[in-house]
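Study this protein:
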Amino acid sequence: MGSKDPQLGLVQLTDRSYGYLQEDKGLGWSNAGLIAGKKEALLIDTLFDLALTKKMLDAIAETVGKPIKRVVNTHHNGDHFWGNQLVADAEIIAHRMFRSEMMHMTPEVSQAMKTAPADTPAVALLQKALAPFDFSGIELTPPTLLFDSHLTLYIDDLPVELIHVGPAHTSTDVIVFFPEEKVLYAGDIVFRRCTPIGWEGTFHHWTVALDRIAQLGPETIVPGHGPVCGLEGATEMRAYLQYVYKEARVCFEREMTEKEAARRIDPGPYAEWTEPERIIFNVARAYREFRGEPHDKPADFFEMAEVMAEIRRAHSAREMQ
């Protein structure tokens, strides 16, 4: 499934399953999902700000008309849960580590970033990415039910499987599988036709998470970003990770810096994916592994953003030649 011009907004995928799809315009433009029963609905993720989340909830109310009784947050990045306060009456479910991890970045910091002096390319790049969003008025609303490795919910006596697969993209990654209709909500374990970005974990864990998706055998996958797909989305993500890991190893053995490696590696078959400059995050992850550093060693986001800005400028310059 999926095309270059995917449907956007609330899209019905099967009898009970929906995706809420946003155009992939970069940082923060995430997808969500819904499984509707006869009397209630299960929401998978909220969105980056209150206005976007309200728009989604209005579409669900108009089209589906079932009250949202439960919400699953697939991980603790703001674009997947900062709209939680608008569904605060529901039971909100996430991985055990979510409540502590969610404090590492707050809406207040992101809002302040929008008006900070744009005195470096990194800040200018982040401000451009954050400009469409309004983080004012957001109150962090944490999950009320936490689980460790696996939790089964029921919609109309049909199981919905919640499986923790982190640390991969983040430490709290959860995939949501509805076996009855073979629909899987992947969160940011799958980026579709856009360069992935990751914060904690290893290439191995992320690959194992993608292998787990393949084992489940879904026919439809709602990725965290990008258009709906089938298993090919998970397969391509796995191949991308393997490609970058292999190329980064060559650069590491040649004693290149992470920045040099990110600029040197040819995106190859993934050249058409959006946000190619995000490769610096993937290279940095590989280098942490090569050096034997902890999987959750904090990344310097501003340093990464500086490299992203340089790669983007170089790419733009080549296009103008």
Q: What stands out?
A: The chain has one domain: 9-320.
